[in-house]
Structures are given as C-alpha cells and as structure tokens.
Specification:
The chain is of the alpha+beta class. The protein has two domains: 204 residues, Thrombin, subunit H (Beta Barrel), CATH 2.40.10.120; 159 residues, Tetratricopeptide repeat domain (Serine Threonine Protein Phosphatase 5, Tetratricopeptide repeat, Alpha Horseshoe). It is 39% helix and 18% strand. It has 14 helices and 13 strands. The strands form two sheets. The chain has a six-stranded antiparallel β-barrel with strand order 1-2-3-6-5-4. Strand 7 and strand 8 form a beta hairpin. Helix 7 runs antiparallel to helix 8, helix 10 packs across helix 12 and helix 13 packs antiparallel against helix 14. It is globular, with a radius of gyration of 21 Å. 50% of the residues are buried. The N terminus is likely disordered.
C-alpha cells in the first residue's frame, strides 16, 4: 500500500502543480474527508463517489458511476492498464482500465474490490445552472467540493466531442473528477482549464463511451493511450526549452498529438509551435481544436494569439468577436481586441474593448487609449 506522499513523480500536463507538492502528501484519512464542507448538502455528499487515483499522472480523480465501475480522464491514464485507487481510510486498491476507442477525454475503470458506496446520477447541464467541481485536492489531501461557478457555454451542437464550458473552480488533481449541479448530479467529467475558463466532458458522453469499451477495443485503446503519453512527454520536454524545433521534432509532436484525439493536447502543441514561430503548424492544430469544439475559449484564445503573432489580424477578428461576447472581462482578450481591431480595421470592436477595459482595469486604459488615438504602424504579416 502507498500513501499519497509516496507517489512517484511522472508525466503531467493538466496537474503540473501536483508534481511540486506531491512529496509532501500524507495518507488520505477518513477524518480528513469529514472536514467541514461549505457547499450544498447534496454536493458535499457527492464526495463519497469521487476517489483520488494515481496512474500516468501522479494524482488524478475518478468518479463512481456503478457498483464497481468508475470514469476518469483518459489523459490521467494514457496507456496504463491499471491505476491505484485511494480509499478514504488511506488504503489502495487496483482498478483496471477498460479498453476503449472513444476519442473523448474519458475512459472507464473497473474495480471489483471497491467497497459499497454511492453512485452519481448523470444529468444534462443547462444555461444558468450553478456547478461545483468535486475532486482530489493536492493541498488538503482529501476529496474536496470547491466553490461554485456557472455554465459559460453549453456543448456545441453537432460536435460529438464538444465539451461543457464552465467557471466552477478546479485545480491540479481534479482531472477525472466530478462536475455536479446543486442536486449532486453528474453533469460532466473534469477535463481541463485555467484562469477561470474550465472544461468538462459532458455526462452524455458516458453512453457512447460504454458502447465503445471492452476487450475488443484493446488495440485501438493502446494506440490512443500511447499517443497521449508520447504527446504529453514531448510537450514536457519542451517546457523551459528555448530555440527552434527541427523538422523531425515538429513532425513527431504533430503526429502524436493528432493521434491522441485530445483537444487539450492540440491546444498545448499549437501553443508550443506558436511561440517558436511555426505559424502554419500551430494554426493547423488550433484549427483542428476549433473544428472539434468551436465553443472552447482556451482554444479560441490560442488561435487568436497565433494569428496575432503572425500579424494576420483579419483572420483573428472573428475569433476575437466571439471571445469578446463570451469572455468580455478577460484582459488578454481585451488587449488583443484593441490591437487587432485597430490594425484589422474593426474600430467598433476596438472601441468596445477599450470601454470594457476602463471598467475592469482602469490603470491599463490610458495606454490603450493612446494606442487607439495614435497607433503604431501595422506589423507586416509573417
């Protein structure tokens, strides 16, 4: 048996912070789980259906959806065939990964030795609904129900892998955890996010996931899992590294991330290419991300930044208009909208972004206003 403190560091994208603190972990105890929960009673009760796990990512979360069946994020598992699942008394059991060729960022776990406990009921998210993340907290060493947020955008229609976008607080270790409503019903599986822009795989995906899971999918599952692992490791190797990529490195990263089917990895690889001025490679991945889920604010921001760095403002503007509508207080969006609006000749967008900037960050407004009054020459496209 291992405690959380004894988990070995490993690959991590969505839970990078966990690597830094994992050596300080102690065992998760029943008393820790019983600490005060400030959320609605049904949300607090949902903690009993969520477990910490260790697999490809040192710390992740999993949600009980059947007597011995759980669901977690595919990227926390990668190509592992089993995971360690932590019970509230500090003991661990082994859960087997159920093979699947489903391309969404979820996968099933089978845990025959899982003690009896509650199962979360799936439900569809609705506009205006209050949502809560329930997952493994790497700082408090327990399953935690976090402060609520709301629905930012519902899954895009006609896009089977589109995610639920929300503002409910989530953090490292929560990937694979539960996104629940006030009744404690499971509306999504926590996938990714940051800076208040979070994503979950909607619970409706569980039906297709179950239909595309089982021993017959072992080869396809191994291929997808290996692509997740290789893409993640290559991205981690680039972290902190400066300088260009050679053609072989560029091709290897593109191939692995595309084969993963994981939109979050598309975005991360697109960003890695973008900061190295590999504009076309960056745009290709961000466009695939956009096609999979046009509601992703994080993906749209990455795409807008890549266009901005390439001085292709006319192509950037449609994405900035969408972002200004759905993330009007995001300072990065406002800065991009002011600059691209001026240089791309959408002064209406630039002026609206300036007025919003005056509200959310008055100190930055004078410099932005000076830019609009006397803009510097438009950079040449790259």
């Amino acid at each position: 048996m291992r405690t959380w403190k004894e988990l070995a560091p490993g690959s991590l994208v969505a839970v990078m912070f966990a690597v830094a603190v994992i050596a300080e972990f102690g065992a998760v105890t029943a008393s820790a789980q019983d600490q005060v929960c400030r959320q609605p009673e049904a949300v607090c009760a949902a903690r009993d259906a969520v477990f910490a796990i260790s697999a490809f990512d040192p710390v992740g979360s999993a949600v009980r959806i059947g007597e011995t069946q759980l669901v977690t994020s595919r990227h926390t598992v990668a190509d592992r065939k089993s995971v360690e699942l932590f019970l509230t008394d500090g003991s661990t059991i082994t859960a087997q990964v159920v093979p699947s060729d489903y391309k969404g960022d979820v996968i099933l776990l089978s845990a025959p030795n899982l003690p009896p406990g509650p199962v979360l009921e799936p439900a569809a998210a609705e506009a205006g609904m209050q949502l809560f993340t329930v997952g493994a907290d790497v700082s408090f060493q327990r399953i935690r129900a976090y402060d609520p947020g709301g629905v930012t955008l519902l899954p895009a229609e006609g896009k089977p892998l589109a995610r639920l976008h929300h503002s409910a607080h989530s953090q490292p270790g929560n990937s694979g955890g539960a996104l629940v409503d006030e009744q404690g019903r499971l509306v999504g599986i926590v996938a990714a996010g940051g800076e208040g822009r979070h994503e979950a795989v909607p619970s409706r995906a569980l039906t297709e996931l179950a239909a595309r899971s089982g021993p017959g999918y072992s080869d396809a599952s191994a291929e997808i899992g290996a692509a997740v692992r290789v893409c993640t490791l290559q991205l981690e190797n680039l972290r902190g590294r400066r300088g260009p990529l050679n053609d072989q490195e560029t091709k290897a990263l593109t191939t692995a991330c595309r084969r993963s089917g994981n939109r979050q990895l598309y975005d991360l690889a697109g960003k890695a290419f973008g900061i190295r001025r590999l504009t076309e490679e960056s745009l290709a991945l961000f466009q695939e991300s956009f096609e999979q889920d046009p509601h992703s604010l994080n993906g749209r921001i990455g795409l807008a930044i890549t266009y901005h760095m390439a001085a292709r403002y006319e192509e950037e503007l449609p994405h900035l208009r969408f972002l200004f509508q759905h993330a009007p207080e995001d300072l990065q969006v406002l800065r991009l909208a002011i600059q691209a609006g001026v240089w791309g000749e959408d002064l209406e967008l630039a002026q609206a972004a300036l007025e919003k900037l005056k509200e959310v960050n008055p100190r930055a407004a004078p410099a932005a206003e000076r830019f609009m009054t006397a803009p510097s020459p438009r950079p040449q496209p790259r």
